[in-house]
Amino acid sequence: MLATYAQAFSLVFEPYVLTVILCSAIYGLFVGCVPGLTATMATALLVPITFFMPAVPAVAAIVTATAMAIFSGDIPGALLRIPGTPASAAYTDEAYAMTKKGQAEVALGAGLVFSAIGGLFGTLVMITSAPALAEIALKFSSFEYFWMVVLGLAGAVFIGNASILKASISLLLGLLVACIGLDNPAAHPRFTFGNTELTGGVSLIPMMVGMFAISEILRFMVHLDPPLKLATEKIGNVFKGMWGLLTKYKWPLVRGSALGTIIGIQPGSGADMAAWMSYAVAKKFSKEPEKFGTGHVEGIVEAGAANNSALAGAWIPAIVFGIPGDSITAIAIGVLYLKGMNPGPTIFIKNPENIYAIFLVFILANLIMIPLGWLTIKVAKTVLRVSRHILMPTILLFCIVGSFAINNTVFGVVLILIFGLIAFVLEENGFPVAPAILGVVLGQMMEENFITSMIKSDGDPSVFFTRPIAMGLAIATFVILLWPVGVWLWRQRRSFSTRRSV
Amino acid sequence: MRFNDALLGLGFLALSIAVLVDIQGFPSFQGQSIGPGAFPGLIAVLLACCSVALIWRGWRERREQGVIAVGAWLSSPRHVRNFLVTVGALVFYIAAADRLGFLICGTIILSSLFLSLRVKPALAVPLAVLLPLIIHVMFYKLLRVPLPWGVLPVLY
Q: CA-nearest residue of chain B to A167?
């Protein structure tokens, strides 16, 4: 174990990898800071470049850029009342209210310091739990994997979505897209419309660039909001008073980090959900809940820690089972496959040094976040003045090149156009996009394990429920599936009995 | 632009029926009950169920939802133009990249988007020439992505 860590250390601490980490940190901070450019978009745009790197720097780039982007999304939230990434939206009003009260440095400092602590907490959980989970996962066969995938997809649909029906449709569309191509048990070309480019299936990366970058550009193009206006020009020392906040709010910090990690692990819900839920929890357990919303730092401490810890948490199922915890890890899993680091429990046996290198990168990224984040806050005024009218068309050109670079065909550009338009229309109509992405990523795994299991059991589906772990996972799935029904029935009964008593 | 849920549901229902029709032509294995059509078929059936639920909901709420709720941007010609220029830029690249080459296409795309977004021409035109060049050097030279030269001779 120690020898492996030494090996991982030498993989990470070499000039090339460190340069990649530094560059992607600056990139992530910039993208997170500009409103309209999300952390997911940052990841999707980074993938075509990591395509040309060895495995460790490629993953390091993604890990660093996303951690930075999730933090720096707080900056425009505090200064412009526009969250830089969706993960900051939960406490944007709070941070802005603090800025209005002349406490911009406290809001930003808390965002920075507690983001780093939350990120380190999540990383610690990942380092300790992932190898242990992998031990269990080694015992899994196709039955258990099938249920794991179903459990993940059920979580993506049933947890935290406004409309479960629309989330389900989004998921099913993703699963249908995953069916396209030759990659099925019979190697029959499905839904390819005679197009040779489609026989290999829909390329994941152009699809993600389309759904997360092109749709975002289109949304910017039809945006009717007034131009951005900074709430304050003056930002003091962001580290002042942080120690006091740390001792005062140590429990909210731990609670936020823990909840964030758990939500991150749960497939389908990522940093943004972690922030919303932690903010609500912070308010519920606070001694002074009446201060929330008026520029009170407590919620920022808890939710700021939560969204960064969720990021690390999401990697746990991604590494151990190959099941992404959120849309960012869905993209990262694609990169792992491209680099020959196929996720799954055996990765801890085959090339453990690479996994430990990822752990080290997580620690490193959360540590350098503090000085680099401080610098970003210093130059934020200038960054926020960068014209988005120039930025967005340039990003469009990057999307074109990036999607072309994966297979060197213009078909990649066709894909970003189609999926960009689909994602734009779906989101305009209230369909969440994340379940679709998980559907595409997990569709093949789900089908493979389903078919293998059915052939193994000679067409008898009862085997899905008789193996002990499989049964446990099946029960967990049905609990998630039947939860909303149960809640609905309970409410009906209660309203019925109250009506009767009246 | 929000469509009524019933309209979207009809679209999804049509999609699932199309899938169900298409998988009828898929081959099956001897002695196996499960072929390549089983999984897409299952998903199509589930999608059809969800579509029916969506249609029912859209129909029930047809008063509140209307048939199509036009977003504010659709009544602003400037924003409609921005949207169309963006989509047009991608279509243009797909159609013309191999013939005209990346540099020329990139310049045309950027200048039209900049001008549509009302960037000052004195700034827009030099940027539209320079940025594709930088991106081209970065990807063609450093990452060895064979971006097409088109009508231009191979310069580097």
A: B50
